[in-house]
């Protein structure tokens, strides 16, 4: 007996789902530190980290990467879902009031993680598509 169409749908979903790497960068962060001081800059980092922790799934891994960059490794999902989720998050940050800072923006790059990719290739791919 062959598998049901439901089993086939699950297999197709599983094949379409993959892990993703996002790199988020606070734009003009040096200016924030220079204009308002490092304590304000630290407050911005803290608020952003809290927003990420509450917005993304608890199973998604969030790391600080450099002074004003963060990396997120997402659990498997499809390309449309992760693209929509990142767009929603970027809009959330645009709408967020940060201490002393008006209109803070972030840029984000997103890359698919394949089990056959070299880690540096995934990282470079995410960096190259930041917008």
From TrEMBL:
GO biological process, one term: cell adhesion involved in single-species biofilm formation
Annotated EC: 2.7.7.65
Coiled-coil intervals: none
Gene Ontology molecular function terms on file: diguanylate cyclase activity
Keywords attached to this entry: Nucleotidyltransferase, Transferase
Catalysis performed (reactions): 2 GTP = 3',3'-c-di-GMP + 2 diphosphate
InterPro entries (UniProt xref): Diguanylate_Cyclase, GGDEF_dom, Nucleotide_cyclase, Rev_trsase/Diguanyl_cyclase
Gene3D superfamilies per UniProt: 3.30.70.270
Keyword hit for Nucleotidyltransferase: yes
GGDEF domain boundaries: 17-131
Keyword Nucleotide-binding: no
GO cellular component, one term: plasma membrane
Protein name: diguanylate cyclase
Organism field: Pseudoalteromonas haloplanktis (Alteromonas haloplanktis)
Gene: dgcC
């Amino acid at each position: 007996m062959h598998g049901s169409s439901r089993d086939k749908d699950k297999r197709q979903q599983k094949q379409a789902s993959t892990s993703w790497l996002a790199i988020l960068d606070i734009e003009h962060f040096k200016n924030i530190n220079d204009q308002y001081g490092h304590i304000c800059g630290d407050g911005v980092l803290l608020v952003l980290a809290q927003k990420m922790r509450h917005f993304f799934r608890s199973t998604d891994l969030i790391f600080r990467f450099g002074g004003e960059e963060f990396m997120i490794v997402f659990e498997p999902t499809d390309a449309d879902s992760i693209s929509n989720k990142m767009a929603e998050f970027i809009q959330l940050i645009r709408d967020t009031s940060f201490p002393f800072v008006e209109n803070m923006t972030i840029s984000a790059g997103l890359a698919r993680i394949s089990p056959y990719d070299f880690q540096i290739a995934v990282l470079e791919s995410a960096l190259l598509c930041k917008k």
